[in-house]
Design a protein that fits this description.
Belongs to the NADH dehydrogenase family. This protein has 16 helices and 25 strands.
């Protein structure tokens, strides 16, 4: 294995380029400006992708309200004073202060992985989808955590409308027009609501498909959806979705989805060519592989100062970290931790950067404390729910607040301006309803021309 030299420079290794990784590195650039200028400190950000995805805008990207390239933030552009390394952390040895990184270049050239020494570790790889051992799920399930999945799902939904419009087989048509979403959290509800809104608009251009022909089903194992916005707004959301002929099934689980047949725990059974899985997340596997202390839920056990509990020079925040909630009410459990959401992650990143800076300069660290202010959720164009600072909003005001809040939070003025411009243009012109499914296999046309495509193989 190749080991990069470690000189007198203090190296801060940030694992992950999501909310915590990006914002921590962004704040470190500012707080350690003098040290970076002298060459006394190096900040290295490692992530498999060269961008951060602003996930709250994924539903709007799937619905076509925002261009996909505007929901991602290029790491190199916003972190000019950091070293951005595109690769996957395959091993961490914190006792030796080294991380093993598999890079694309090493994979292509057949070289050994890079062993990267560090002085301070920020372990913030985020989370991955939590897939359960449901028969058929691994074969047909579609996730909704990345921009690739969001755009792939948009193309898939529009392709199903094309299939339903062009077939005379009632079974194929029913399966194409049945869309099942499993999971009643933010991702599932917002994705379903935005895509149903888009599909309802799209079918006006199909002569033989009507809105009532489509079946949209939301499956949730618990007795409520969107728990973050409170029980009242959750019940309102159920009523709003059902008023749009969306079948919301609470206290129901997915039993199987083999051979495009969805079976639920309530005994129902129906064909479907679309199954979207948003039923929870779990910490990235590198968290367990790091051998750092974790909770029973697999998250890193951290102090309020965002240090990994009992481990020097190791820090964490966000989805992968269990950070004590110092603002929890007295009635809460004594071991209450901050919710793994963007609101906490962005604020934790700032405190984390300040604490690392204080540690490098021999100063004092401070604890993270932020009282949760509430949540907003979009339910499609001009529809939403919100519970912020104790106030409950629904409909257009909640939708407007959702857009305003997330526009203020997306990184860089450049992204803010482009997203705002797209919203204005979308309000003036009709939606785009074109499926670009060929993007998933861009070489198909050339392979056909070269005589290696599917049509040639079967001719």
């Amino acid at each position: 294995m190749k080991t990069e030299s470690s000189d007198d420079v203090a190296r801060v290794l940030v694992v992950g380029g999501g909310y915590v990784g990006l914002y921590t590195a962004l704040h470190l650039q500012r707080t350690l400006k003098q040290e970076l200028r002298r060459g006394a400190v190096e900040i290295v950000v490692v992530d498999p992708e060269p961008y951060m995805t602003y996930q709250p805008f994924l539903p709007e990207a799937a619905a076509g309200s925002i261009s996909p390239r505007h929901v991602v933030v290029p790491l190199r552009r916003v972190l000019p004073h950091c070293t951005v390394l595109i690769g996957e952390i395959t091993a961490l040895d914190h006792a030796a202060r080294t991380a093993t990184v598999a890079t694309l270049a090493a994979e292509q050239a057949g070289d050994a992985d890079v062993v990267l020494p560090y002085d301070e570790l920020v372990l913030a790889p985020g989370s991955v989808s939590r897939a359960l051992p449901v028969p058929g799920l691994a074969d047909v399930g579609i996730g909704f955590k990345t921009v690739e999945e969001a755009i792939g799902l948009r193309n898939h939904v529009l392709e199903q409308l094309d299939i339903a419009s062009s077939t005379r087989d009632p079974e194929v048509r029913d399966a194409a027009l049945t869309f099942v979403f499993v999971g009643g959290g933010y991702a599932g509800v917002e994705a379903l609501a935005e895509l149903e809104d888009m599909a309802r608009y799209a079918v006006r251009y199909y002569h033989n498909v009507q809105p009532e022909d489509m079946k949209w089903i939301l499956v949730e194992a618990s007795g409520r959806i969107l728990p973050e916005v409170g029980a009242d707004m959750g019940r309102y959301t159920v009523r709003e979705l059902r008023a749009r002929n969306i079948d919301v099934r609470l206290e129901t689980r997915l039993e199987s989805c083999e051979k495009r047949i969805v079976r639920l725990s309530d005994g129902s059974r129906f064909p479907s060519r679309t199954l979207v899985w948003t039923a929870g997340v779990k910490p990235h596997p590198i968290v367990a592989a790091s051998k750092l202390p974790v909770t029973g839920h697999g998250r890193l056990r951290c102090t309020a100062a965002l240090r990994v509990d009992g481990v020097d020079h190791a820090w964490s925040a966000g989805d992968a970290a269990a950070v004590p909630d110092l603002t929890a009410p007295p009635s809460a459990a004594p071991d209450a931790v901050c919710a793994p959401n963007a609101q906490h992650a962005v604020r934790q990143a700032k405190v984390l950067a300040e604490n690392i800076t204080a540690t490098l300069r021999g100063g004092e660290v401070r604890d993270y404390a932020h009282e949760y202010v509430g949540s907003v959720a979009s339910l499609g164009l001009h529809k939403g729910v919100a519970h912020v600072y104790g106030r409950k909003l629904k409909g257009y005001p909640a939708w407007f607040m959702h857009r305003a809040y997330h526009l203020s939070r997306v990184p860089t003025f450049n992204r803010k301006a482009k997203i705002l411009a797209e919203w204005i243009l979308a309000g003036l012109f009709k939606r785009e309803i074109v499926s670009l499914g060929s993007l998933e296999n861009p070489r198909a046309e050339f392979e056909l021309a070269a005589g290696t495509g599917r049509h040639n193989e079967t001719s």
